Every structure is written in C-alpha cells, then in structure tokens.
Amino acid sequence: MKAIVYSGTGASSVLSLVERDIPDPGPGDVRVRVVVSGVNPTDWKARSGTSIAFPDVVPNQDGAGVVDAVGDGVDDVRVGDRVWVYLAAHGRPTGTAQEFTILPADRVVQLPEGVGFDVGASIGVPAMTAHRALTVHEHGPSRLAPDALADRVVLVQGGAGAVGHAAIQLAVWAGATVIATVSSDAKAELARAAGAHHVLRYPDDALADRIREIASDGVHQIVEVSPAQNAALDVDVIANHGSIAYYANNNGDEFTAPINPSYAKNVRWQGLLLYTMGSAAHHAATEDISAALRDGVLPVGESAGLPLTWFPLEETAAAHDAVETGTTGKVLIRVSEEDA
Ligand SMILES: NC(=O)c1ccc[n+]([C@@H]2O[C@H](COP(=O)([O-])OP(=O)(O)OC[C@H]3O[C@@H](n4cnc5c(N)ncnc54)[C@H](OP(=O)(O)O)[C@@H]3O)[C@@H](O)[C@H]2O)c1
Description:
Blueprint: E1 2-5, E2 16-19, E3 29-39, H1 41-47, E4 62-70, E5 82-85, E6 100-104, E7 108-110, H2 117-120, H3 124-134, E8 153-157, H4 162-173, E9 177-182, H5 185-194, E10 198-201, H6 207-214, E11 219-224, H7 227-237, E12 238-246, H8 259-264, E13 268-271, H9 279-294, E14 308-312, H10 316-324, E15 330-334
Parallel strand pairs: 8-9, 8-11, 9-10, 11-12, 12-13, 14-15
Antiparallel strand pairs: 1-2, 3-4, 3-6, 3-15, 4-5, 5-7
Helix pairs in contact: 1-10, 3-4, 3-9, 6-7
The site of NADP nicotinamide-adenine-dinucleotide phosphate has 29 residues, from helix 1, helix 3, helix 4 and helix 7.
C-alpha cells in the first residue's frame, strides 16, 4: 500500500511517499481503508514540531473510509462499515495519509447512510473541538441536540474557519442565535451559508456595539480562535455567567483581559484541547455529532460555507502547505476510490 511518512520533523519536504505491507489489526483495533484524509493545522504543526516519538509517522488525524478488518474483541464495528475516524495519529504513528490505517475501535465512528466521505474526513478535529467549545459552560448544556441551546446567544469568532464553521453548524442545529465574525465579504458569505444568523466584519472599533445591538443582554457563549486579539472585546460583550471557550493562539501567544468586568460578570475563561479533554468529552462529541450527521446538518462544500480543496495522496506535502498558508475552508486528500 501507499503511505506518506516522515522520520524527522521540519518543512513539508520531510514528507515522502513509500510502499508498505498492509498491517493487520491487533486486539481491539480496526483496519480502515482510507478514502479521504482530512488535513488540519495540528497536522502540519506536529510535522514541523520539535520531535517525534516513533521511528516514523504517517500524518493526519482525520479521515473517512471503509472498515476492511477488525481485531479480536471488536464487536461494534464490522467489515464493510462506512466510518469516520478521529485522533488517528495521536499517541500512535498511524495517521490517515495512507491507504490503510489501524485505529482503536473507539476512534472509529459510523458514518450515517447518505453522508459522504468528504464530510466524514472534515469532522474529527473541527467538529469535536467545536462540540467541546459549545458544551463547557457554567449554565449551558453539556450535550448538544435540537433546542439544547435555545434562548442562548453564541458568538463564533472566525466563522469562516474550519472549527468556526463546525461551531456555527452545531450551534444553529442546537437552537442558538449565532453571531459570527469574519474578516472579508467573501468569508461573510461562507459564515451565512453555514447558517449564522448574524455576520459581522472585524476589525471594527464599533464591533462591541454591533454585537450588543443583536444581544442586548450579552452573548452567553463565545467560541474563540484568537484570544490574543479578542479578549477585551469578549469580556465587553459577554453576558453575566458567560463563558469564553478558547482553543487556539492565532495571532498571539498571550492575552490580557480586563479583570474587574471579568469577575463582575462571573466570566469563565475555558481552555480546551482535543488531545487532553478526555475520553468522556470525546464520546459525548461523537454521539452528538452522529445525531447531527443523521439530521444532515453538517454539510461541507462552498454552498455550505466550507469550500473544499483537494489533493492526491502523492501531494500530501502541498496539502499541508495549503493549510499552513491559511487556505479558506477544508483541505482534503483523495487517498482511494470510494468503491475500490
Ligand atoms: N485546541 C484544540 O483542540 C484545537 C482544535 C482544532 C484547531 N485548533 C487550532 O485552532 C486554530 C484554527 O483551526 P482551524 O482549522 O479552524 O483553522 P482555519 O480554518 O485556518 O481558521 C482559522 C480562522 O481564524 C480566523 N481568525 C484569525 N484571527 C481572528 C480574529 N482576531 N478574530 C476572528 N477570527 C480570526 C481566521 O480568519 P481570517 O484569516 O480571515 O482572520 C480563520 O477563518 C488553529 O490554530 C488550530 O491549530 C485547536
């Protein structure tokens, strides 16, 4: 089988295409024939990081495909199942940039009938992060379902990003009033297509006023990609007992926030990291996301607010570069044909 590997960290040029034997799944593991591999910022960041824990690593956490073998003790996943996977390369060297990958059964989730592999490969990192961001609040729901966020206002900073896109879709599905911020008219179109009820441009000195015009009592939950730039604005527009779920360090590694209004409003600054948030949060996310997929509310593609940019497996390095340089939407790799 074909696999993309790297044996030392660095620029995307460390990635190379190799031929390997197809591995057999061990007890509790599942082998997936990968159809589509999804690329996220975490994949190029890991590749360009300081070190790797294995002799070599196949990159990419996300993907979708078909189960083609299961190990002993696996009874909830069957050969032939269409699935999406998450954290494929976390704590293991077996990402999705290869024709067959091995994962623990609990990182393999059924893809509902009619949901495409392009959707499946776009879920893991973005939607699970968005789910966590929408469910870690003092007075908000710990699970998402229709009406779970009814009567709540959610502000998604960066509504045309991959995580932002998933946050809009999940929050709208759950009944929230969703405000998204974007940096251009083209991105505004995408955030609207994702379902945001209100889309505002940044930077804008009057942004806080515009948000309060929509949410006079403040926003209850903020999904924050850039606390370094937005912390003060977030505190300005947050409601009493509101929470700011921050998941990235875009445009700055440190943030300051005004203290008095933060405590006066009982603000919760809630960090989150997919790798460390815990298996209970992972399983809650996979269950709720599966329900959202069954309801057909997580489409991808330009008309759904998430343009897709495709690469063949051989061009995985270019796919990583596309994500690193900020390609809008989702970068996907065609690994094999759907009906191989
Ligand atoms: N903690 C976790 O577990 C976790 C999980 C997933 C992703 N992440 C991290 O989250 C970040 C985003 O990931 P992604 O896949 O969504 O990337 P992406 O698709 O590139 O989206 C990033 C978005 O952030 C927007 N943005 C940047 N500065 C902003 C600001 N000041 N206000 C509002 N929006 C702003 C960008 O818009 P403009 O370019 O137009 O400004 C862009 O739309 C990455 O750093 C990634 O590593 C963390």
